[in-house]
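Please predict the structure of the following assembly.
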Amino acid sequence: MANALGLKCRECGREYPLEPLNACDFCFGPLEVMYDYDAISRLISRESIQAGPNSLWRYRELLPADYHESVDINAGFTPLIRSRNLAKMLGLNALYIKNDSVNPSFSFKDRVVAVASAKALEFEFDTIACASTGNLACSVAAHAARGGLKACVFIPSGLEAGKVLGAAIYNPVLMSVEGSYDDVNRLCSEIADSYPWAFVNINMRPFYAEGSKSLGYEVAEQLGWRTPAHVVVPAASGAMFTKIWKGFNEFADLGLVDPVRTRMHLAQARGCSPIAEAWEENRFMIKPVRPSTLATSLAIGNPADGWYALKAIEASEGSAVITEEDEIAEGVKLLAETEGIFTEGAGGVAIIGLKRLVEKGRIKPDEPTVVYITGNGLKTTELVEDVVNPFLIKPTVSSFEAAMASRTK
Amino acid sequence: MTSPTPPVRRVRLTYVDHLIKQPVVYELGRQFKVVTNVRRADVQENIGWIILEMDGEEDEIDRALDWVRSLGIRIDSVLGDVVEG
């Protein structure tokens, strides 16, 4: 924490103290944490990182909160898997899968909420809160349970019970808000203004978002202290995408890896692709959309970091790809059948995006490539429920053998 | 615990095509009892957005925003969506 100096507006550059703020008073630009990189460079090394815990807190010098065991659920340091079968199918020789679906509450959100929760303790909040339709709610509720904090989770009414069960099990206060998606957005912004709570992605957002940098650090470390030639990342608000890019570049600036030459590829689903559409239309302006996508964890129509994601694509000479809605489940199944990883719709978007980039020749066979899988499929089973089609047999060997003989695959 | 007076409403308006040429903010201040203040804006050839502060009675601001919406202008939170997956 000593390495975090303050907050700075990403638009006008005005500086603010380390407080629960997320927007500049003057221009409403988003705030970002400033660090004392000279101090960090004296404290951090490959060896110091490797001697740290097997969680994102091994990179604590580069995070804006101190480690607090009381609220730690052991997020991060998830496997980076060298792909064999999917790589072969796509004609790639150096494909890696960052499997972040195995975090404690089964998504990458544990990284951002880990930092936000630790910071909430430092700010002496007793309640953490969020508005979510899934993964974020689970992570906030789980961290609150561990830390003995109160949790208040807002969800749009009409959400299927299964989608919030992963949060409800930790016993947060669940508020199902009658009204549109926009109504929930507005209500939560108002509550965040008037209640002394740590809204993880509102007043805690500058700290929260920094947790995603660890997705960049880990991949670089796990690749043997180098950054890949390409990454393919599913995007909603665009924050994670920009933070992976930031993580790579911080490592390079600190001399932990060579200068970054990674091309950043952003993947969105057709039903909610405001960032990718802007990229395809060559405009640096996000046109908000009404989300309507099967990749529910990517359904952010007005992405707070969309413009910054476009800048990261440009700076890295990357690109954006759009996965059609009817391809999302296909991507989920492809990853499961080839690599044994069951991801949610966002993962399907990333896998099809990867496939498309290979088909277009943007990713060459020998270029080290990492695809980020950020959430677990067990939360959204309805997306692929058509796979459940067992043989119905009698309890006899002959019935079993008849079924085996009838197999078409 | 709620604020005794409602805070100034801040919205992001996104315009496309012909709407860019309309004096929407002027009309909004003329037709409704709302004080407007443009805080940031970016207007390009076919698309533009402005961040607008609106001060006035809550109901009047709601009516003003309904009128803006009826023109086909999109209204969003200044800070982006906060409902995440």
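The first strand of chain B starts at residue 9 and ends at 16. The beta strands of chain B are 9-16, 35-43, 47-55, 74-77, 83-84.
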